Amino acid sequence: MSLRDKIDNFKKPFAKGEKYEKWAPAVNALDTFLFVPNHTTKKGAHIRDGVDLKRTMITVVIALLPALIYGMYNTGYQHNIQTGEATDFMTCFLFGLWKILPMIVVSYGVGLGIEFAFAIYRGHEVNEGYLVTGLLIPMIMPVDIPLWMVAIAVVFAVVIGKEAFGGTGMNILNPALTARAFAFFAYPTFMSGTKVWVADAINVDAISGETILGKLAAGNAAGYDMWSMFAGSIPGSVAETSTLWILVGAAILILTGVGSWRIMLGGVIGASIMGLIFNAFHVNALMEFPWYGHLMIGGFAFGLVFMATDPVSAAQTTTGKWIYGILVGLFCIMIRVFNPAYPEGVMMAILLLNVFAPTIDHYVVQSSVNRRKKRLAAKQLKTT
Where are the transmembrane segments (predicted)? Predict the structure, then answer.
């Protein structure tokens, strides 16, 4: 008997009108995870395309893997280089895997549990959107954040950030960034400072993990060369440090048509412009830091590629994507420089633009309508 036949037999008690009909969404989720759904459009316009939500989400997960694998290695490298232990790839990677895997398990376990509960309660199918969110949340957290804090942040992100708005496709804020924002304001001592970015730094006095942005905000030199910043061998959140591997993920998203290159390029343009403006002044270390350096430190690259391009919470129109991306870059650098208590900036910038994305699209569409009305009026005037 094939796997398809076994699943079909298993699903019979959960069919409509059967004893366990209420639990059908949970069982169907397993089916759609293993096989392409066989749903077809019954009426209206038909779009012939082999891409569904599951394939889109899996593509994003694949694009995240290079940054995640390097993040696991860098987690071990940052710890071992200070403790004097071996820094070969496999030793560092296994150390990082041991630290990060529990965060991923908790994120998926708690998040998917809530998704299944809401699907059963509302009587709809389980959406695949959390496949990406569940991986993004641990990737943007400090490595030693307690697992119970990760769980609470996930609950807040899924319940308040998504399900309260109607579920996948209805949320106005990026769920992963919502989780990080909640953790940052609820548990600030575990989300900032010099002891949270390197594994075991809280428990071992000899280990310190101050980030480049933290050093610059304190008025000190960055302490790393540009190659280290680009490659990612610096302290930071789990998978945000390597611009190199984030660019590999960006290439996957762009080539598959999943991520918007307009938002990515717009963000780089906006951040570069604001960085160049600040470079003209010599007020503090953050202003003097080279504009191109801002593109490689902190969570700018990761946030721009994997969260600013979220098709649900980002701008939808072509012109709107350019405006949205440029404003994300502008506000990111602006927040970094003007907010010494939080020198990162990208999280706040993206969440702020998530709120204004519908407004941006509204005025873009309205501008197009007004232009067409003027062309029509001019054409009618000529004919008369």
Answer: 56-73, 93-118, 130-160, 234-256, 263-283, 289-309, 321-339, 345-365
Nearest to 110 by CA among 120, 100, 102: 102
DSSP 22: G
Contact 344, 336 (CB under 8 A): yes
Q: Which two tokens stand for residue 52?
A: 């569904």
For 33-55, how does the pLDDT look when each residue is reduced to its tens digit (9 = 90+)? Answer: 555 555 555 555 444 455 556 67
Mean of pLDDT values over 303-323: 94
Give dist(CA 36, CA 217) in Å, integer.
50
CA 229 – CA 293 distance, rounded (Å): 8
For the chain, domain boundaries = 8-36+53-209
14 confidence band (pLDDT: 50, 70, 90)? low
Helix (H, G, I), strand (E, B), or coil: what is residue 383?
Answer: helix
Residue 57 is which amino acid? Answer: M
Task: Give pLDDT, residue 46.
Answer: 45
Quote the CA–CA distance of 97 and 93 in Å, as a whole number.
Answer: 6
Q: Which of 191, 114, 107 is nearest to 150 (CA)?
A: 107
Residues 6+ apart with CB under 8 A from 282: 288
Torsion on CA atoms 158, 160, 162, 166, rounded to nearest 10 = 130
- Residue partners of 75: CB distance under 8 A and separation at least 6: 92, 95, 96, 99, 100, 143, 199, 238
Tell me the pLDDT tens digit for each residue of 173-225: 999 999 999 999 999 989 888 888 888 887 776 677 788 888 888 888 888 99
The mean pLDDT of the chain is: 86
CA angle 110, 298, 141 (to 5 degrees): 15
- Token pair of 88 as six digits: 């070969």
